[in-house]
Sequence to fold (583 residues):
Amino acid sequence: MKHIVAQLVTDALAELPELADAAADLSIESTVERTRDASHGDFATNIAMRLAKPARKNPRELAASIVAALADDADVDSVDIAGPGFINFHLNLSAFHAELETILLQGENYGRQASRDRPKILLEFVSANPTGPLHVGHGRGASFGATVGNLLEAVGYPVHREYYVNDAGRQMDILGVSVWLRMLEKDGIAVGFPQGGYRGGYIRDIAETINTDGVTSVSAESVLSGLPADAPEGDKEAYLEALIGKARTLLGEAGFDHVRQQSLELIRDDIEDDLAEFGVTFDTWYSEQSLTKTNRIDDALEVLRKRGMLYEKDGASWFPATDFGDEKDRVVIRANGIKTYFASDIAYHFDKRERGFDHLIDILGADHHGYLARVRAGLEAMGYKGDDLEVELVQFVTLYRGGKKMQMSTRSGEFDTLRQLRAEVGNDAARFYYVSRSNDQHLDFDLDVAKSQSSDNPVYYIQYAHARIASVFRQLAEKSLKWNDTEGRNHLALLVEPQEKALMTSLSRYPELIELSANNRAPQHLVHYLRDLANDFHTYYNAHAFIVDDTMLRDARLYLISATRVVIANGLGILGVSAPEKM
RNA sequence: GCGCCCGUAGCUCAACUGGAUAGAGCAUCAGCCUUCUAAGCUGAAUGUUGCAGGUUCGAGUCCUGCCGGGCGCGCCA
Fold:
């Protein structure tokens, strides 16, 4: 709907060649906005004030000349100039009626834009280490990423969702040894469980279910002999390293690998199931191991080397990240010959671009913010633009129950997994609350509110509006009445109540909200919009009956609430929240 | 110490990339069900936007410096 006004202003400006220079680098669409106050009309543009300086003219005079150049339009009732130079547009109700018709014609596609070819977006999110179940912090990344993906698709971008599985490196050895020790424990061989191992109960579960074919049985003596002390008496890392060495020698590389890979697969499958139940799915699960297997890391390092972007120092290979604005140079191959995590990270992002994705979005936990500069440096060093990589940081989540902050460490608190959270508050509430705040703000997640089935709870408030509309149509059927949508469309002019105008206005904003939310990667705008829309509906519901004797009025009102149902369902769909017919 | 994120009503949060009188919900108080779901609605009250400067027609929003909180600064992943 906004484009009606933007087009008028654009055409008017074309009539004023003397302003062409001043308006050259101004997006007219961006100057048009909804008014905050109904007395200012429906839309306003601040273009006269924006052009005042470059055109060296008084904003009100400029506004007057723009208004004079505006063509007459059936959708516009009146235009006036207000304040320092705002141009206010009062639209004809017919424009809103046409929008309602569009909503019902387009249905679930309302608010979606035609698909475009580019940029092709690779959206990487969650990417939690496959060393244990997802915790509540990952849930936020999952909800945010999934919703941003939906938003970007809604505005037409091709989006590829990817989960990067960190299934290589030392953490896999630690996982394998943790499981092995629990297996030994089950067989009555007690080895001091390492401080640095994974201690969660799920490790025991894996030890129970793992396929032991090909895993050598060992004696207690062979494991315990020659082990150094664990912390606090000894060194935690040395103890862990010694145990990993034991696993390697006693089980053999193949045997240890068997335990490691099975553990990995069980955890990865569990994560995938968890996310699928949460409505979060991926197009690819990209394995870090595969980077090594396909030599992608060596390929990337070779590209750097050819470009003179590697140097040797202290026996290690370094990448001169400072040349690209990072704080310090980074090691890619350690003196012991092992490649660093940064090497695989750089190769991974290189690979993303090589696979043909134009724009890379990484959704990361806030504790990863240090990586942006170096990975971006890596891309630039390999000849890509640093801007190709966009990082959205998701801040931490704090759970509250009974007004108190909950401890969420694996050891002290029992409550820390995403699965537990979903079981307690439900998927809808979880998906909703996770995106209700800007991603760069800390999130206080109040379990009591999320669970409450009352007006305190915005999820239910919005869903209830949807269910109420469905209920109205059930009532209609019970009274053996039928809604004639054509008649409804023809008599929309009968909708003259203030609540009806307010609802129509809110509905017409939906496409703008989707675009805003997508462009800013800001689902919380959509959340707040839906809350306001539901409020407009509930207010209307309480003020006026829809199923009235006057057939024409009834059909028109049902037309309006049908459109409301469509918009609420579409908005909730983007958030990954269900739109129930009945509550 | 350096870097990133943040600071708005008693609480939880908005404010459409610089616009008009900074808005919602919760909590508090007063009302509304013989009528489509009261999981709802109506009304009342709440501010030195952390502090101090600066930029301009105009600043919660941009810049600088403080104060306060969170996170990060490995040849770990």
